[in-house]
Amino acid sequence: MRKITLAVLASAALGLTGCGYSTGDRAASGGLLGAGTGAAIGSFSGNAGAGALIGGAAGAAGGALTGPDSVNLGRPAWR
Q: Phi and psi at residue 75, in whole multiples of 5°?
C-alpha cells in the first residue's frame, strides 16, 4: 500500500512539472511542486528535508526540460 501511494504521488508530481510559458517559469514551478511533493513523500520515511531537496531538483529539471508545447497548464500565479 505504501509503495502504491508513493508511486501515485510521484507520477502526479511529474505531471505537474511543466507549468508556465518560459523555461524559467517551468523550472521554478516544477521545483516548487517537486519540493512540496518530495517533502510529503520524505516525511513517510522520516526525512522530509532530503525528500524536499531531491524532489525540488527533480521537479526543476523536469520543468526545464519540457517544452511549452508538451505540457502547458496555463499562466503561473506569479505572472
A: -75, 135
